[in-house]
Amino acid sequence: MKAIVHVALKNGVLDPQGKAVADTLARMGYKEVAAARIGKVIELDLEDGLSSDAAEARVKEMCEKLLANTVIESYRFELMN
């Protein structure tokens, strides 16, 4: 089983890296880009034999404890067989 975790800054949290990307794209002629937000994607390969419910609980726990700073970041994940 594989878990794909998407982590991004919460709305209202300044994203200097995203601003730099948006500004650079505008200077390169991509004027249609009004803003950019930078996030991360984490792929986790989970061992076989874990039920979907157990995998969901464990991945949520991983996100809360390590993968996302829940004060300033939100996360979502999907499980794939």
What is this entry, summarized?
This protein is α+β, with helices and mostly antiparallel strands and 81 residues long. The chain has two helices and three strands. Strands 2-1-3 form a three-stranded antiparallel beta sheet, with helices on one face.
Radius of gyration: 16 Å
Query: Strand tally, please?
Result: 3
Quote the average pLDDT.
Answer: 97
Poorly predicted tracts of residues: none
What spatial form do the alpha-carbon principal axes imply?
A: elongated
Q: Structural class, judged by helices and strands?
A: alpha+beta
Order of helices and strands: EHEHE
Give a verbal description of the structure.
- With 81 residues, this protein is α+β, with helices and mostly antiparallel strands.
- The protein is 35% helix and 28% strand.
- It is built from two helices and three strands.
- The protein has helices at 16-27, 52-67; strands at 2-9, 39-45, 73-80.
- It has a three-stranded antiparallel beta sheet with strand order 2-1-3, covered by helices on one side.
- The protein starts with a strand and ends with a strand.
List the helices and strands and how they pair.
Layout: E1 2-9, H1 16-27, E2 39-45, H2 52-67, E3 73-80
Antiparallel strand pairs: 1-2, 1-3
